[in-house]
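User: quick one, fold this
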Amino acid sequence: MAVSNDASESKAGELKAAPGTQGATAAKLSALFAGTMGPLIGLLLLCLALTLTTDTFLTVRNILNVLDQITVLGIMAIGMTLVILIGGIDLSVGSVLALAAMVMGFVSHPDYLNLGLAAGVVAALVVAGLCGLVSGLLVTVTRLPPFIATLAMMSVARGLANMITDGSQIVGFPDWFTSLSIIRHFGFLSVTVGVMMVLAIVFAIFLNYRATGRSLYAIGGSAEVARLSGIPVKSLTNWVYAICGVLAGLAGIVLAARLDSVQPSSGLGYELDTIAAVVIGGASLSGGVGSIGGTAVGVLIIGVLRNGLNLLGVSPFIQQVVIGVVIALAVASDTWRRRAR
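Assistant:
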């Protein structure tokens, strides 16, 4: 009887532990996609509306086209998520994208330095990272507001991008480079889309399961409290802006592969789409709230909306108005969420 009682208690313990384990798993998934239920429902409704109003939206070809179109925005939005999480903002990402692309073209193209594409890519990422780092230092050392610091960097980076070739574009890269965004592996996945997905997974894991990643939430919640808790606020802030710069540079390289060219005017207005995607995904402009999963949903909403408007034959000018309204609503919803808390 004693053995039977022990066995019964053991089974009861296992039954009690199971819900706890399931709860922990659910909590992890909830953290990964924090605040995304509303945006996710919005995305599904948008897809449903476009499916009913167009014949071509819900086709394999168009869905793959949407994935290709959001690659640049998706990569930039990952970096912007980190910046917004710490309570910052980066208005320079579009200009840094252009500068990095021009540096890559200038270093690698036969008409200029002709040092090879590998050297061009490395130079582009280094320059982009330095731009981000300078923005971070302007925020942490000179104590400029992030808006002003990155606005200044936006102007500097755009000017440098134009200076490299006196405003001229650089055309013609190796076939293997442009094929990265064209050839589909496994029948659906291009290398550039794969890079975006891998980066999203890596940074989602970083934010949710690494102490440094969790520290970004603490900084966004209260930088002073985070500092008193022993978190190196200034150092992490500099790193976050540098990473955002590198990802903007990588987005410029991906864009060059898609277009087979680079030009100083690349990335104009991208910073607004990037910020909008992050906020639509549930991040708060005041910091401390957001997730990579939410940003992914926000990026998809922007991409699907643009694609749907094109399929419906909406004028590009009207599209700009619609996107502007979406951005305004996204920022307004963030304000409403903060007031509700």
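User: anything notable?
Assistant: The chain has one domain: 35-43+59-334.
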